[in-house]
Specification:
This protein has one domain (7-258): Rossmann fold (3-Layer(aba) Sandwich). The chain is built from nine helices and seven strands; from the N terminus they run βαβαβαβαβαβααααβ. It has helices at residues 16-27, 39-51, 66-80, 105-133, 156-174, 190-194, 199-210, 214-222, 233-244; strands at residues 7-11, 31-36, 55-60, 85-88, 136-141, 179-186, 254-258. Strands 3-2-1-4-5-6-7 form a seven-stranded parallel β-sheet, sandwiched between helices. The longest helix has 29 residues, at 105-133. The protein is globular. One of its GO terms (molecular function) is oxidoreductase activity. The chain crosses the membrane at residues 12-34. Keywords: Membrane, Oxidoreductase, Transmembrane, Transmembrane helix.
């Protein structure tokens, strides 16, 4: 299996994308540590992994709390002796559908400060341990909003661009230590919204502002892609497994464009 003998931590593991990635890592042979703010959601993912024969533990960890993240990783190192893979898949409600000129500074800043601070805290915490072992993989998550000039995404598009920039800078700094840093960039995943993701609230609010149904909003979004279908949770999870595996050992500072063609290049 691709990730046999690997130790992974997934932040936001109780969410749809984080849970899918964590489950796929476990199927691929990794010992997966689930981290997030909602123990009940983490427990559901843990139960699925254990039912399928995987190895996992969960802990309530706020990825915006540096001390909490450091302490959690120290506990993982004490148990496993290493951390091979770190994934940040957190999600928060934020405002979309309002032009920037009409958006409050607070609503604009929220996704930017939350996503970039969380990714900085979790990635650098993992990096400090990975440097000692001279190996490791750090995965971040973005969206096509990082590149698109439209979409009325509020501060979210800016936050995605920042996460991709952080990914590249970390890759440059950590490459000499054998640590790879990569980003997954899926477009909107309707399946995730209906599976309990925070994106359900985000897109529902956006649809309400546009006076359309949620299904109609997803239909409009899917009309911007080149392929006939939107990305799925399995697409993201399977790509994450590949990127975290030795099969991708030549890849770093790279964004995996899982947008089904809504952005090209």
């Amino acid at each position: 299996m691709e990730l046999t003998n690997k130790t992974a931590v997934v932040y936001g593991a109780g969410g749809a994308i984080g849970g899918a990635i964590a489950s796929a890592f476990a199927v691929a042979g990794a010992k997966v540590f689930l981290a997030g703010r909602k123990p009940e959601s983490l427990q559901k993912v843990r139960d699925i992994i254990l039912k399928n024969g995987g190895s996992t533990e969960f802990a309530s960890v706020d990825s915006l709390d540096k001390d909490a993240v450091d302490n959690h990783l120290d506990n993982i190192i004490a148990k496993e002796g290493k951390i091979d893979i770190s994934v940040n898949a957190i999600g928060i409600f934020h405002v979309q559908g309002i032009p920037l000129a009409e958006l409050s500074l607070e609503d604009f800043n929220l996704p930017i400060t939350t996503y970039i601070n969380s990714n900085f805290i979790t990635a650098t915490a993992a990096a400090r341990h990975m440097i000692e072992k001279q190996s490791g993989t750090i995965l971040t998550i973005s969206t096509p909003g990082a590149l698109l000039a439209n979409g009325i995404a509020g501060g979210f598009g800016v936050s995605c661009a920042a996460v991709e920039g952080l990914t590249r800078q970390l890759a440059g700094e950590l490459g000499p230590y054998g640590i790879r840093v990569l980003c997954l960039r899926p477009d909107a995943i309707p399946e995730a919204s209906y599976a309990g993701s925070h994106s359900f609230e985000v897109f529902s609010h956006r649809a309400k502002l546009l006076d359309v149904s949620l299904d109609e909003l997803f239909k409009r979004l899917s009309g911007t892609v080149l392929l006939p279908n939107a990305p799925t949770l399995a697409d993201v999870a399977n790509t994450a497994v590949f990127l975290a595996s030795d099969k991708a050992k030549a890849l770093t500072a790279t964004v995996a464009n899982l947008s089904c063609g809504s952005v090209v290049g």
